[in-house]
Amino acid sequence: MPRLLRPLFLFPLFAGLAACSEGVESMPEMPAPAVGAALYRVTFEASWSAATHASFPAGAHFSAVVGASHRADGLLFQPGQLASAGIKDMAERGNNTGLRAEINALQGSGAAFRLMEGRGNINSPGMVADTIRLDAAHPRLSLVTMIAPSPDWFVALENENLLGADGQWVAERRIAARAYDAGTDGGATFTAPDQPMLPAGVIVRLPLPPATGPAPDGPPLGSWHLERIK
User: Fold this and answer.
1) Is residue 117 classed exposed, middle or buried when 0-12, 13-18 and 19+ CB atoms within 10 A define those classes?
2) Mind giving me the DSSP string for 124-151?
3) 55-88, pLDDT tens digit by residue?
């Protein structure tokens, strides 16, 4: 008789252990917490001078920097594509009114997060700093400023992603300021008279010869320094 009862007493114990084991195996994994917003100090360091480039016109400067933090689909411009009216006005006249309105529209659609716009022109050599906030949904940064004087040339920080592959914000980054031709004016020199392009061409990289050395594209006209401060 005892031999028959012992298995019956042990069965509930085994059943309970099995149930606990199944419960552990079926427990869903908790998702990693989403990264919070980040605040960056953005410094544009203009290095364009007679010592760095053969072409350095009198009164050389850059216009007020303007741009936004955005998603991958919130680009302000794209090489190989036509310039928007806002990019055209910025590149030809240093007027940010139209581009600011375009950024506001991107914010309204959710494609852009924060606007950054400086005040006043930037002497070259010289520098200017400002701050902008990004979040996990808008981890990219694009900024532009007119090269002046020029027909329709500008330098930019183009679609820079500051959220690393590890899901954390980049602490610091330095990027050369690339020069572009907006494709809206056909002038070939910094001080050429207005030559509107009809139809307009697309945005392309702008090669600038250096003052010395063999580099076909010359050194950059400046650089961007991005530093997370919060």
Assistant:
1) middle
2) SSEEEEEEEEEBTTB-EEEEEEEEES-S
3) 899 999 999 999 999 999 999 999 999 999 999 9
Q: Which long-range contacts does 163-170 make (Cβ < 8 Å, 24+ apart)? A: 163/35, 163/134, 163/136, 163/139, 167/32, 167/35, 168/35, 169/35, 169/38, 169/134, 169/139, 169/228, 170/226, 170/228
**Is there a contact between 117 and 66 (Cβ–Cβ < 8 Å)?**
yes
Cβ-based neighbours of 63, under 8 Å, separated by 6 or more: 90, 94, 96, 121, 122, 145, 146, 148
**Residues 189-229: tens digit of each pLDDT:** 999 999 999 999 999 999 887 776 655 567 899 999 999 99
| Predicted local distance difference test score (pLDDT) of residue 8 | 39
> At which residue do the structure tokens 């602490």 appear?
171
Residue type present at position 51: A
Sign of CA dihedral 188, 194, 195, 197: positive
Q: What is the dihedral of CA 78, 84, 87, 93, to 10 degrees?
A: 150
pTM of the model as a whole:
0.83
Number of residues that this document lists for the chain: 230
- pLDDT tens per residue, range 128-184: 999 999 999 999 999 999 999 999 999 999 999 999 999 999 999 999 999 999 999
Beta bridge partners of 129: 43
Q: Exposure string (b/e) for 41-57, b if CB count within 10 Å is 16 or more? A: ebbbbbbbeeebbebee
CA 197-46-194 angle, 5° bins:
20
